[in-house]
């Protein structure tokens, strides 16, 4: 199989009779959130002897074997850093952005971890102001939706404060005058103290639900990528098109796949698709470089998951394999990359493409 790893057996024949699904969107794109692996304080005495990274559209699981080859016991702080986030009414839910379902297992035992949260507003640290008022930083004051048509959002931590303090927080810009949610940026990490005994190996596993990105792309975008052609039009249109092309190219689709997808789109009826709709999961692979390099044994397993129709055989996967390594097929739904003595130099972008669905009869 090609290193670029477009996994599309029998795809071209299927595309000849199918068209893109008829779907309603509140927006034509969604941003992914790239999290990664475990980070240490540059610990050169502990090597990542083995990493098995499993990625699917609904779950990321990472299994590590960390080995301490030194004659000394090593105790260090280990962290899972969450990408900084803000609240946007139209964006991903707060639990998704904060990876609140993060789970940690060490040597087969579930381990509790600590949460450290800081808040900034326009580059200024405002953690102290919020904590002194008892406002939870990661959840923007336990922000939640209501059942009332008049008030869509409810911020209990803010609303229980005396009116003068509420007004002060609004004057400081921490809450908007016309929107009932916090405006700060959350800097969050889950962390714990980990011991690595001399000449011993520790097995650590963590998992969480990824936040997928997605876009709608017209067939012109696919054609431009296929033909290595620069887009035309006004400056704004060209810039937008170049961004779409970059997204598509970062998923490493090959020419046979793009040709088949273009034919499927063009065969669909008006109002019945007319767009490609790739989604993707990002993973910060270079977080492994905070440990002693290289990763002695690295395995990436990608599962294609089910399409929006619920069928596993109508979704296909495309990604740039690390170091252009070969991709092997484990079974109908899983694909593997294996490397030894691996030092990551780029992040992972795993692309998912749904087969176009046939129009209703």
Biggest sheet record: 9 strands, mixed
The coarse overall form would be flat
CATH-defined topology:
Immunoglobulin-like
Tally of discrete structural domains: 1
What is the C-level CATH assignment? Mainly Beta
Q: Can you tell me the CATH architecture? A: Sandwich
Structural class: alpha+beta
Radius of gyration based on Cα positions: 23 Å
Separation, N- and C-terminal Cα atoms: 37 Å
* Number of H- or I-type helical stretches: 8
Estimate the helix proportion, in percent.
10-25%
**pLDDT below 50 for ≥5 consecutive residues: which ranges?**
1-30
Mean pLDDT over the residues: 84
Query: What is the count of β-strands?
Result: 23
Strand content: 25-35%
Task: Quickly describe the structure.
The protein has about 350 residues and is α+β, with helices and mostly antiparallel strands.
What are its keywords?
361 residues, alpha+beta, Immunoglobulin-like, seven-stranded mixed β-sheet, flat, disordered N terminus
Itemize the secondary structure elements and their pairings.
Blueprint: E1 6-7, H1 11-15, E2 29-30, E3 35-36, E4 39-40, E5 43-55, E6 60-68, E7 74-85, H2 94-97, E8 103-106, E9 109-110, E10 114-121, E11 124-125, H3 127-132, E12 144-145, E13 153-154, H4 156-159, H5 163-171, E14 185-196, E15 200-208, E16 213-215, H6 219-227, H7 235-249, H8 255-267, E17 279-284, E18 291-292, E19 295-303, E20 315-319, E21 328-329, E22 334-342, E23 348-354
Parallel strand pairs: 3-17, 5-18, 5-19
Antiparallel strand pairs: 1-20, 2-16, 4-7, 5-6, 6-15, 7-14, 8-9, 8-15, 10-11, 10-14, 12-13, 16-17, 17-23, 19-22, 20-23, 21-22
Helix pairs in contact: 6-7, 6-8
């Amino acid at each position: 199989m090609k290193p670029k790893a477009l996994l599309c057996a029998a795809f071209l024949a299927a595309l000849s009779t199918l068209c893109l699904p008829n779907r309603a969107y509140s927006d034509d794109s969604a941003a992914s959130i790239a999290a990664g692996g475990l980070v240490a304080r540059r610990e050169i005495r502990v090597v990542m002897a083995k990493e098995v990274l499993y990625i699917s559209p609904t779950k990321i699981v990472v299994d590590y074997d960390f080995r301490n080859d030194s004659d000394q016991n090593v105790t260090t702080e280990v962290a899972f850093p969450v990408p900084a986030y803000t609240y946007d009414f139209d964006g991903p839910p707060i639990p998704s952005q904060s990876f609140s379902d993060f789970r940690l297992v060490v040597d087969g035992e579930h381990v509790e971890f600590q949460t450290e949260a800081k808040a900034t507003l326009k580059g200024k640290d405002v953690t102290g102001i919020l904590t002194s008022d008892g406002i939870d930083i990661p959840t923007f004051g336990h922000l939640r939706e209501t059942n009332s048509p008049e008030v869509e959002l409810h911020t209990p931590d803010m609303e229980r404060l005396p009116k003068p303090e509420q007004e002060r927080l609004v004057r400081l810009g921490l809450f908007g005058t016309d929107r009932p949610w916090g405006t700060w940026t959350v800097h969050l990490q889950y962390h714990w103290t980990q011991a690595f005994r001399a000449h011993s190996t520790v097995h650590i596993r963590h998992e969480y639900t990824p936040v997928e990105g997605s876009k709608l792309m017209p067939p012109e975008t696919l054609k431009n990528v296929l033909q290595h052609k620069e887009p035309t039009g006004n400056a704004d249109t060209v810039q937008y098109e170049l961004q779409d092309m970059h997204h598509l190219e970062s998923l490493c689709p090959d020419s046979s796949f793009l040709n088949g997808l273009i034919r499927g789109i063009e065969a669909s009826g008006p109002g019945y698709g007319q767009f490609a709709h790739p989604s993707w999961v990002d993973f910060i692979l270079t977080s492994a470089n905070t440990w002693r390099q290289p990763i002695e044994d690295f395995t990436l397993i990608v599962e294609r998951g089910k399409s929006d129709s619920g069928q596993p055989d109508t979704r296909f996967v495309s990604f740039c394999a690390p170091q252009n390594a070969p991709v092997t097929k484990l079974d109908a739904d899983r694909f593997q990359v294996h490397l030894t003595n691996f030092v990551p130099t780029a992040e992972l972008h795993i692309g998912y493409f749904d087969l176009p669905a046939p129009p209703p009869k």
